Structures are given as C-alpha cells and as structure tokens.
C-alpha cells in the first residue's frame, strides 16, 4: 500500500467528492471531509520523511513509463507543498462545521463540502504531478471548485467576486494551456523531466516559440497566484467568500500557484535560461517591490478585516516573488520557506476572522471595536498571528524576512533591504488598527454583548498560532528543507 501513497494522496479526496454529494447528508459530508483531510496529512508527512534525505519518489500510472504515461514525482519541494495543503485542510476542515452555520444556508452545506474536497484534490494534484498538461487539468479542477466556494457567501457581492475570479481565472488558465501547447509542439512531450531534457537545444537557438511559451506560462500562473498587477480578483474573492473558504484559499491556493511557477522556471526551463536568457529578475524584482509597498499601504485604509488581510496577502506574495527574483540561494530559500510560513500566519488570521463573524455577524472595524474583553482568546490569537505577519522575532514571519534581507545583502542591494523593512513597518500600522479598536476602544452601545468563540474553534485556531511560534523559535527543520530545495533548484535539480 505504501508504494501507492502518491496516487492515494489525490485519488481519495477526488473520489470522495461525488460520494459526499450523492449521500446528500451535511453532517456525514463534514465527517468524511475531516477524515479525508487527516488521511491526506498522514500521507504527506510519510512522503516528506521519505524524500527528506534527497530521494525522489516516482509513481507511474498503469505501468506506463514516463514520458509515455502520466507520472507523479515527489521530491522535497513537492512534499513541502503537499504538507502545506494537507496540514491546512486538516485544521480548517474540522473548523468549518460551526463556521458555515452562520454563513452558508443549510441547503448548500453538501455542495460546500463537495466543492471543498474537489478543491483539495486539485491543489494536491498540482503539487504532485510530473506532467505539464496534467498540471493544467488540476488547476482547472481547483479553480472551478473555488468559483463555487466563493459564490456560496451570503452577500450578493460574493457572486460578483466569483464571476470576476472566473473571468480572470479563465484567462490565466488559457494562457497556461497555450504555454503548455507551445512546449508540446516544440518538443513532442508533456512530461516535465523530459521537457527539461529536450528544450536545451532550443534554448541555445533562442527559439521564439520557447520564449513565447515561457511568457504565456509566467503570465498565466501569475494570474493564478495574484502577482501584482494581476491581483485584482483576490481582494474581492477573499473579502466576500465565506470566512472558512477565505482561510483555506489564503493558506493554500496561492502557495500552490507559486510552486507551479517554481516548477516551470527551474525544473522545465532551468535557472540559466530563466535568469540569463529571459531575465525574469528584471520583471519580478520591480513588481515585487511595488506589490510590497502598494498593497501594504492599501491595506491600511480598508474598513473590513477580510479585505485588509486580502491586500496583505498580495504584499506577502510580493515577498515570495522578490525571493525568486534575487536569484541566489538565500532568496530562493526565503521564497520556499515563506510558502510554509505564510500559510501558518494567514490561516490563523482568517480563522480568527471566521470566529469574529460567528459571534458578531460582521468583520468590519465597528464589529471588532471593544472585542478584546469579550473575546480575549480570539483577539489574543489575532495579536500573535499579526506579530508573525509583521515579522517580529520568535515568529515564522521573522525567519522568512531574515532570509530575504540576507539575500539582498548578498547581492549588495541595500535599497531592497530597506523596502522589506518598510513593508514590515506598514504592516505594524494596519495590524495596530485592529489591536487599537479591540483593546483600547469601548464596545459601541448599539452593539450587543458577545461571548467568546466556541472551544473547538479556538483550539484549532491556536494550533496554527502555536505553530507560528514553534517554527519561529525552531526553524531548523523548515529552513533546512527550504535551503536544500533552493540549492537543487539553482543547481538544475528537483
């Protein structure tokens, strides 16, 4: 059975989704979804420990050897992303049952869990497949289910946000498909490892077709990961989706898209072509710096907590792209490490938002005012996760930014170090706005008193909060994996 773990990682949630829909029982749908998420976490941990010494696991469907059949490949980078997705699901899925009672009509609960399982399956499939077209298929599975999840929000603006994401996502998917198609026309293969071997001669010839494929893939995946200025779908999607959906997407979807970008840039095209041939650093570094400053400043002026965190996510994506653009081992370590760290901090923050909505019925500043005394454990979770977002020492956010600063110093680019520090200072401003409202202002007289969030929701949220501290104090495991991944990416491995 253990040899089939790569396939089971994707197949279990994919097969359970229609089963959940056919049973049409909301409570059973939740129970099965939780069980699937926990099984997925166990599988991803098993795969990570199996490849942590540098081994690569290959799984070929139907006995068809690559490149003739579809193959899954697990290395350190795949395994880390699989762990991120499955770990977030293992926390958020159990949390979801109480959260959706206030945000999604009971008649739609089964559809919610069906779409959630499909989204999980699509994200896991993107992270594990070694086939370029198969990656596109899983992108579409996750995207279509995401459109459904966003549209389930009670606010009518959720439909507008879902439609906007549908348009932007369709454009992004089309660009990715065109890029993959151009690579297939050029090489006659879709297997990523085989593509890496065959396109070398075309890189030397400066093939226009290869350059076009590169451009289509970068723009298409850039739309999916909300790279500035292709991020316009993200604030509306996060702000108007049900809170638990926002938490799951913020913690997983953009991380998997960044992984897909890394996989194409370094595994398929190679670091030499990416930096020396296409000069991707000339694109990523300016866009990343603008994203960090612009999105952080815009976050300050948001009245709603979810929209504020959405713009914060755009800025955090900028940090990841900056790490890629710096083109050294420390920068790629920072980008890879921030995939994991940002999932922890943003997952915790959005679960706090879900608990606030559960008790107050809203997430704008007027609902948060005075909550420090009435929901002390909830707001304490926000403070700790917010400190991690800022990058305070002893949190995971500090570790990511430390490696980014180290990377910029190694390149001798001090202005980039200053921008990273300014981005952290701006984060202090918008996090402080929430802290000030919750702890230093009285509860409005027209607002009814509220109780602390349910114990089950608090425990699950504090698991993520504790992880923000633990992996900030003891970063040797995650930083070790990220460093090994960065060395392999730049060395042409993985």
TrEMBL record:
Occurrences of domain NADH:quinone oxidoreductase/Mrp antiporter transmembrane (ranges): 131-426
InterPro entries according to UniProt: CPA3_Na-H_Antiporter_D, NADH_UbQ_OxRdtase, ND/Mrp_TM
Any Gene Ontology CC annotation: plasma membrane
Transmembrane stretches, start-end: 6-23, 30-51, 77-98, 110-129, 135-153, 165-186, 212-234, 241-262, 282-301, 339-358, 379-400, 412-432, 453-473
Membrane topology term: Multi-pass membrane protein
Main location: membrane
A molecular function (GO) term: NADH dehydrogenase (ubiquinone) activity
Pfam families: Proton_antipo_M (PF00361)
Localisation per UniProt entry: Cell membrane; Membrane
One BP annotation, GO: ATP synthesis coupled electron transport
Keywords: Cell membrane, Membrane, Transmembrane, Transmembrane helix
Protein family (similarity comment): Belongs to the CPA3 antiporters (TC 2.A.63) subunit D family.
PANTHER family attached to this UniProt entry: NA(+)_H(+) ANTIPORTER SUBUNIT D1, NADH DEHYDROGENASE
Protein name (Swiss-Prot/TrEMBL): Cation:proton antiporter
Species annotation: uncultured Thiotrichaceae bacterium
């Amino acid at each position: 059975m253990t040899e089939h773990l790569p396939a089971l990682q994707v197949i279990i949630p994919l097969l359970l989704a229609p089963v959940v829909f056919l049973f049409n029982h909301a409570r059973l749908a939740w129970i099965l979804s939780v069980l699937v998420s926990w099984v997925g976490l166990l599988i991803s941990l098993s795969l990570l420990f199996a490849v942590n010494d540098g081994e690569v696991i290959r799984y070929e469907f139907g006995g068809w050897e690559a490149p003739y059949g579809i193959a899954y490949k697990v290395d350190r980078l795949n395994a880390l992303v699989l762990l991120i997705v499955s770990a977030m699901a293992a926390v958020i899925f159990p949390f979801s049952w109480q959260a959706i009672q206030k945000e999604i009509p009971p008649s739609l609960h089964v559809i919610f869990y069906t779409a959630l399982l499909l989204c999980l399956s699509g994200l896991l499939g993107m992270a594990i497949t070694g086939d370029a077209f198969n990656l596109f298929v899983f992108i579409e599975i996750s995207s279509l289910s995401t459109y459904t999840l966003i549209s389930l929000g009670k606010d009518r603006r959720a439909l507008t946000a879902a439609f906007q994401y549908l348009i932007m996502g369709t454009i992004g998917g089309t660009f990715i498909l065109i890029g993959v198609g151009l690579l297939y026309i050029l090489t006659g293969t879709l297997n990523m490892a085989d593509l890496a071997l065959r396109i070398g001669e075309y890189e030397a010839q400066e093939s226009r077709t290869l350059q076009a494929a590169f451009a289509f893939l970068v723009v298409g995946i850039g739309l999916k990961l909300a790279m500035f200025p292709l991020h316009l779908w993200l604030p509306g999607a996060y702000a108007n989706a049900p809170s638990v959906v926002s938490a799951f997407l913020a913690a997983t979807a953009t991380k998997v898209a960044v992984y897909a970008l890394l996989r194409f840039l370094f595994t398929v095209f190679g670091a030499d072509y990416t930096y020396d041939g296409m000069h991707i650093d000339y694109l990523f570094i300016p866009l990343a710096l603008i994203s960090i400053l612009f999105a952080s400043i815009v976050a300050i002026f948001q009245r709603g907590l979810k929209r504020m965190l959405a713009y914060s996510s755009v800025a955090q994506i900028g940090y990841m792209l900056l790490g890629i653009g710096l083109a050294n081992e420390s920068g790629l370590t920072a980008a890879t490490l921030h995939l994991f760290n940002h999932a922890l901090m943003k997952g915790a923050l959005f679960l706090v938002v879900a608990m606030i909505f559960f008790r107050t019925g809203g997430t704008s500043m007027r609902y948060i005012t005075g909550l420090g005394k009435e929901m002390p454990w909830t707001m304490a979770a926000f403070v700790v996760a917010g400190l991690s977002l800022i990058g305070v020492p002893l949190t995971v956010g500090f570790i990511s930014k430390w490696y980014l600063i180290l990377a910029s110093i190694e390149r001798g680019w001090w202005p980039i170090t200053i921008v990273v520090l300014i981005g952290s200072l701006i984060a202090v401003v918008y996090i402080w706005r929430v802290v000030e409202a919750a702890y230093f202002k009285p509860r409005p007289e027209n607002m009814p008193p509220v109780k602390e969030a349910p114990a089950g929701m608090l425990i699950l949220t504090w698991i993520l909060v504790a992880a923000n501290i633990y992996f900030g104090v003891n970063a040797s495991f995650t930083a070790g994996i990220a460093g090994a991944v960065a060395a392999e990416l730049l060395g042409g491995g993985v």
